[in-house]
Design goal:
By secondary structure, the protein is an alpha/beta fold. The chain has one domain (7-177): Rossmann fold, CATH 3.40.50. Helices cover 20% and strands 26% of the residues. It has helices at 64-74, 91-95, 142-153, 155-162, and strands at 7-10, 21-24, 33-34, 49-55, 75-86, 126-134, 170-178. The chain is globular and about 45 Å long. The protein starts with 6 loop residues before the first strand and ends with a strand.
Length: 179
């Protein structure tokens, strides 16, 4: 019999994932735990979660390397981490005065052993990159899907040369915890 997957939902607001353990700073949120995610350590046991969801929260936090260390600490080995946030080309990245970070396709490479940026050792937390997608995850528009397919095959070229001509808005990461 397969054990139930423990899901951690960071910064859930009023959109809590059913069955998850959720944590948010807002008292009027649907969170199970009210906690400032900029305060470490989180009030969670180590090696607990098989899945971590962070939708539109990491850009609000002060210390991304420390947050990634906490995600690593509370996750089991090979846990999946799903991050959704505004891409740096999106006006949404800049119109919210509480945003502290801006994300590219390579932001999490600092935490992925074997990637060029990992050499800077900002953190002891290690992850494996499963997927990085620019643009909305699901769209029914053929031309947009075609453009996104080309962009996602050439992410760095897109970000360096075309991003401000064709901004994508959203970036989605899937990582795997490595212990």
């Amino acid at each position: 019999m397969k054990s139930k997957q423990q899901v951690l939902h960071l910064g859930c607001g009023n959109n809590k994932i059913a069955g998850s353990i959720s944590i948010d700073i807002l008292k009027n949120s649907q969170a199970d735990i009210i906690h400032n995610l900029d305060k470490f350590p989180y009030p969670l046991k180590s090696n607990t979660f098989s899945k971590v969801v962070a939708e539109n929260i990491l850009e609000h936090l002060e210390n991304l390397p420390k947050v990634m260390e906490e995600i690593h600490r509370v996750s089991k080995n090979k846990a999946r981490v799903f991050v959704t946030t505004s891409h740096f080309t999106s006006v949404d990245s800049f119109n919210d005065p509480t945003h502290k970070h801006f994300f590219t396709s390579r932001t999490f490479d600092y935490f992925v052993e074997g990637e060029d940026l990992y050499k800077y050792k900002y953190s002891k937390a290690k992850f494996r990159k499963i997927k990085v997608l620019l643009g909305p995850k699901n769209t029914q528009k053929f031309l947009l899907n075609l453009i996104l397919k080309v962009i996602n095959k050439n992410k760095v070229f897109y970000e360096k040369r075309l991003a401000y001509i064709f901004p994508v808005g959203v970036i989605y990461y899937e990582l795997e915890v490595q212990k």
